[in-house]
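Fill-in record for GNAT family acetyltransferase.
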Amino acid sequence: MKLRKINPQTYELFENNQSLGTISTYRNPFHDSCIYLKFNLIKIPTTSPFLEIRKQEQKPLQVMIESSHTKLVDFMLKNGFKCKRYCFEAKVSATDLKHPLRTQFKVLPFDVKDPIYSKCCDFLYKYYKTTHELVSPLTASKNEFITEVPTKTGYYSLDKQGRLNNVAFTENNEIAYLCSVDPTSCSSFIDNLLIKIFKKYSTTFFEADDTDWAASELLDKFNYKKNESFNTYIYE
């Protein structure tokens, strides 16, 4: 195996003087603790290029890839990568629900003009930072995060002391982000969130990381087959 860096973001791989294709690198300013890799290979190498790339980049390597790319995933796992996160992309309807939705829980709407919107953004920032810490820590500032990430509408609930305990950011029928500090009420919040969405739309869609307990609880409301996923692999 030989590596040749053909530009600052691209390595070309060779075996027996034959090019196997390229591995490109890129960075994510919101999660900048790793160097991200993107593969454009003609064939899978017989030996690993990852140690050399890791040395040159001087950061852990991260790959985000569909689980259906089995040959490439097997190659990564055999050569030092570890799967750190499974992300499931669900598009579901009310007919996919495992159980009837419970209605006795107060869920309130918000939009970008409401005074509580900034508190909901702060709430999301803290939850997002916590749930990403072990896999790909958030490196953006709170201001950068709030400028780029939250949608302009959603729903929230309050505890008995009037404090936020559950928040969902939505855009039309998408549940973009779900966050909670209260496992005892989150399930009821999700039920009533879904009631409101299914009154307007026939389907909803969302992503659920297995490292995100609230999103996993949302996914578990539905009969959903976890056949395919979009996964995160890290090479330390």
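KEY FINDING: Residues 183-200 form the longest helix (18 residues).
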